[in-house]
Amino acid sequence: MKMISKGALFGAASMVAASFGFNAQAADVTLNFAHVDPAEWTTSKKGAASQVFKNIVEAESAGRIEVALFPAGALGGETDLLQNTQDGTLAMSMVSGPFSKVCPEAAVLDIPYVFPNANVAWNVLDGDFGKELAAHCLEKTGLRTLAYGETGFRNFTNSQRAISEPKDMEGLKIRVMTVPLFVEMVKALGGEPTPIPWPEVPTALTTGTVDGQENPISVIYANKFYEMQKYLTLDRHVYGTDFIVINEAIYQNLSEADQALLRRAAGVASNVGRAVQQFNSAEGVAKLAEEGMEVTTPTAEQLKMFRDAAQPAVIEWLSGEIDAAWIEKLQTAVSEAEASM
After folding, report:
1. What is the mean pLDDT of each run of 10 residues along the chain (341 residues)?
2. Judging by DSSP bridges, how do beta strands 143-158 and 173-176 pair with one another?
3. How many domains is the chain built from?
4. What domain range includes position 65?
């Protein structure tokens, strides 16, 4: 059977979108949509999701709505994008971890080892819990979550030694995002958390400022961290969520039909981004091994050690930051999702 290439598949999708047809007159509305990932759709989940969103919205609105994309951090880091989307200088953004800086309750999604697999995470985020969280964050921030995308499960890498259980992390300086929950997690696992902004990470790894870092497989491969890190541990400690958000005032200025179009397009876009991320993660582990990384997959017993060390400490800390009811709601939603599968 002849296989269809990614390029051919994407080309066909673009032709279908173009077949809706619209003339070249100026759009009635332009939505500026920014993210920090590369634009290349085959390797970037945000790149894929944003391009699909643009294609659907422009095609189905017959050109009345233009979506202008600003990928690769062209308009700043994720904290900048959130601030600009809140004040309306930017219509839309697709962001991950820093969203909890403006809506602290979103940090529940980063509780370590709370999601056993992606299917459970999708069920929870696309279900009642995800809707309730989105409504809460809208009220708190003025940002409407149109859909949840996927950054992927995060894993540890380091340059010193293989990590198969928490004791192996003792003394290792691990770069984390500038998000307090991740500091608490690494501390609970015995490592030395070192918050460093994303643009400075390659230099920090190269110079030995830190021994390791944690990110999804696709990010580790795309940024060639295998050139600076020898060891990869597939512990899948946090399921990274992307938030496709729009300024609420801009959203309310659209007709109900156009609002529905944006929600529909975002739903499709999030699933495309998830698929691209899953594909790249699945083949990424083998690619990283080919590049010389030593890959460690903890056993179920060892994963329990990680969970028992990190989860209670993070939950205790998080309970002092937000209403603990959100933690209970998430745990219930996860249990119900697991039971339904």
Report:
1. 38 35 68 95 94 98 97 93 98 95 97 98 98 98 98 97 98 94 97 92 97 96 96 98 98 98 98 96 96 98 98 97 98 98 90
2. unpaired
3. 1
4. 29-340
